[in-house]
Amino acid sequence: MSKQQRQLHFNLFATRFGHHPGAWRHPRANNPGKPDIKYWLNLARIAERGKFDAVFIADFAGIGSDTPEKAARRAPFLDFEPYTLTSAIAAVTEKIGVIATVNTNYDEPYNTARRFASLDHVSQGRAGWNIVSSSWESALKTFGVEQPLSHGERYERAAEYVDVIKALWDSSEDDALDHPDKARAIFADPSKLHPIHHQGKYFKVEGLLDSSRPVQGYPVFVQAGNSDTGIEFAAQYAEMTYAAAQTLPAAQRYYNDLKARMPKYGRDPDHLIVAPGISFSIAESDQEALDKFEELQNAVDLSQGVSLFGIDLSGYPLDGPFPELPATDNGKGRIEQVTALARRENLTIRQVFLRFATTMGHRRVIGTPAHVADQLEDWFVNRGADGYNLIPPLLPDSLEDFVNLVIPELQRRGLFRTEYQGSTLREHLGLPRPENQFRVATEQRDELPQRIRA
User: Fold this and answer.
1) Into how many domains does the chain fold?
2) What's the CA gap between 30 and 17, in Å, rounded?
3) CB under 8 Å to 133, separation ≥6 — which residues?
4) Contact 127, 219 (CB under 8 A)
5) Which of 128, 184, 361, 404 has a CA that sits 20 to 30 A from residue 48's CA?
6) pLDDT higher than 80, residue 222
7) Radius of gyration of the chain (CA)
8) Is residue 246 part of a domain?
9) Are 137 and 173 in a shared domain?
10) The pLDDT of residue 328
11) d(CA 231, CA 244)
12) For residues 221 and 131, is the Cβ–Cβ distance under 8 A?
């Protein structure tokens, strides 16, 4: 793919109020209270108006085991579990993709395969799966896990999980159900059904998936690991990654490292979209944009101390030096990033929190539409990114600013589409549709001489 042919990709990382921890206290925040589906559908419609590739819904299953006192001070990040919400979004949109997060630690491959097949059919080919294998302490308690897997074991389990699901999706060929024979009372073509017989380290699965193969073959695979193990997993499976980088050199190192690992898995590096997260504040002048951001900073409540990556730092002075964080199996890459940032710039806990937690460890750009477009173009042209996972600080206001002010600027520069050219998420991202592994194996076998086949 030539540089002239490349165009930016954008996902909206949708949340309840926005990604800034002070967003819910902002005067223009979405009204607190019970879940409101109209709010989420409005976000999706705005993103589709901006011709975004997808709306991304995160999930943190099982984090609700805090004490009532802690829970009372924590604004909800999400309202709905991802399958339900993405199905609702798919019903009121026509082109934009819907990416749901599912953690491989707390469900079975059959369930996930069936639900994503349904979502891909409901959306007519616009589904994506954000593959997560993290395991927070509160989630372990919620799910009653007494012997959690190590970091490496979780990725090993996730790899087998994905392999089983791909086999389940392929257990019916695309047209296996297209020609029911009423006269013979045969609904499906048995020659196009391939029951699986999986006996692995973590899973034992037999039989067929009782659903048609997804419209896209497989939903788009998305992943966000920043550790070496996570990058290796992405090189083997991911078709989009939500990377975290603060500087262009760091983004380029990740980009080049990840894509250099793909050929050993028989994969084309152009078949993976690297989309680092980006936070932003946009206005007609730099000062106005900065003022908007400072309003959010001032709304952050630090009276009860702070925590990062689930690590409580309330025992340390807010304006004291940033401490060494204890080793953890979750967020290894992010912890390394924040520690390096604190050491490099000699930051206090308060400064690190306001710098890191307010952007979830991602890059922040503040300024005019032209300035923001310049920054996005710089990383894109210099191969630090193929696109961006937008983490608007205040929703829906920040999203409206981006769609109304930055998207037209990027379109004028020829860096972003003015209309959707396809109908599926794979088509939006320029990704190939996977072939059915069992059909390919059968065709290859049929091409062998009879004596070899036997």
Assistant:
1) 2
2) 6
3) 103, 104, 105, 154, 155, 157, 158
4) yes
5) 361
6) yes
7) 23
8) yes
9) yes
10) 64
11) 12
12) yes
Three-state SS string over the chain comes to CCCCCCCCEEEEECCCCCCCCCHHHCCCCCCCCCCCHHHHHHHHHHHHHCCCCEEEECCCCCCCCCCHHHHHCCCCCCCCCHHHHHHHHHHHCCCCEEEEEEECCCCCHHHHHHHHHHHHHHCCCCEEEEEECCCCHHHHHHHCCCCCCCHHHHHHHHHHHHHHHHHHHCCECCCCCCCCECCCCECCCHHHECCEEEECCCCEEEECCCCCCCCCCCCEEEECCCCHHHHHHHHHHCCEECCCCCCHHHHHHHHHHHHHHHHHHCCCHHHCEECCEEEEEECCCHHHHHHHHHHHHCCCCCCCCCEECCEECCCCCCCCECCCCCCCCCCHHHHHHHHHHHHHHCCEHHHHHHHHHCCCCCEEEEECHHHHHHHHHHHHHCCCCCEEEECCCCCCHHHHHHHHHHHHHHHHCCCCCCCCCCCCHHHHHCCCCCCCHHHHHHHHHHCCCHHHHC
- Domain membership flag for residue 423: yes
Task: Give residue 166's pLDDT.
Answer: 98
Contact by Cβ (8 Å): 216, 198: no
Within-domain flag for 1: no
Q: For residue 437, give both structure tokens.
A: 């592994």
Q: Domain range spanning residue 81? A: 9-299+361-449
Question: Residue 4's pLDDT band (boundaries 50, 70, 90)?
Answer: very low
Answer yes or no: are the C-beta atoms of 47 and 420 closer than 8 Å. Answer: no
pLDDT at 452: 47
